[in-house]
Amino acid sequence: MGAFSLTRAYHFSAGHRLARVDLSDADNARLFGQCSRQHGHNYAVEITVDGVLDAATGMAVDLGAVDAAVQRVLLDRVDHYDLSATVPALDGVISTGENLARVFWAWLEPALPTGSLRRVAVVETDNNAFEYFGDPGERGR
Amino acid sequence: MIVGMVYATRKFTFSSAHRYWREEWTPEENRRVFGHLTVVHGHNYTLEVTVRGRVDPLTGMVMDLTELKRVVGDTVLARFDHADLNGDALFAAGQIPTTENLVRAIWDLLAPKLGTERLHRLRLWEDPTFHVEYFG
Q: How close, in Å, is residue A114 to chain B by CA atoms?
């Protein structure tokens, strides 16, 4: 009766390339194609948070608190950085949409009310989106 | 949704012609049921293909999107882009090429190539105002 899910979209712009440090440029080009060249995206991140309606405020989720958490643990770390080079928290992570969705989940989950994070979607371009719903067996990284 | 899996969606576009018409009906019956859809017309379709899976630790990917592009390109776009759906063998047996029937036909083409454990959802937009979803 009082359970809601709220989805909010955020945006950041970042550089990246897909490459494994243990492979040569030629092997990376074979494995990742044009994604192995340095490039960048205007990313959108959709965060879905569950909440129960608070009769006093008429709100199920404190959007201001979600905004502040996303700004602090996500946007401040990645906006206008190079995901492949200048984000220490992404060292060793191939910055595919899949991996970003999982890493962003790991960053956001502890910063939001316990158990409230429902979905993280990384929209890399108008044509590509990656959704993650968490994994109780996976903690941090 | 299965926890621990990542769901990756890619959009494709193709443009096709069609009309809704049952041969065994009179023109009047066709027009009464299908209205303006009895006249040959066309759409810019958008197809969203969602695949799911565990992330390959070697590549950081659920599926190589270049491979997905190749499969959808060879299987769906090469067949339907700038084509008349009514003339396709899939619709020769009297199936009306509605968005519903088309999304099921595309599922049946893609599922053997992608695998049903990997293919999660198809969303087919006929125009910006109408889409259907199919999960197999």
A: 17
Rounded Cα–Cα distance for residues B43 and B130 (Å)? 11
3-state secondary structure of A46: strand
- CATH 3.40.50.2000 for domain B6-134, yes or no, is no
Cβ pair B58:A137 closer than 8 A: no
Task: Specify which residues A120 forms β-bridges with.
Answer: A47, A132
Q: What is the mean pLDDT of residues B88-117?
A: 94
pLDDT digits (tens, 9 = 90+) for B46-100: 999 999 999 999 999 999 999 999 999 999 999 999 999 999 999 988 899 999 9
Mean of all residue pLDDT scores within chain A: 92
Kindly report the CA angle at A119 between B126 and A50, in degrees rounded to 5? 110
Predicted confidence at residue A138, as pLDDT, reads 61
pLDDT of residue B93: 83
Q: Token pair for residue A107? A: 């960053």
Q: Which domains, ranges and CATH numbers included, belong to chain A?
A: 3-13+40-132 (3.30.479.10)
Partners of residue B79 on adjacent β-strands: none
pLDDT attached to residue B27:
95
**Domain extents for chain B?**
6-134
Interchain CB distance below 8 Å, B6 and A102: yes
Whether A35 is a known active-site residue: answer: yes
In chain A, residues with a C-beta closer than 8 Å to the C-beta of B58 are 20
Contacts of B2 in chain A (CB under 8 A): 133
Contact A128 B9 (CB under 8 A): yes
Q: Which of A11, A39, A80, A98 is catalytic?
A: A80
Q: The pTM is what?
A: 0.82
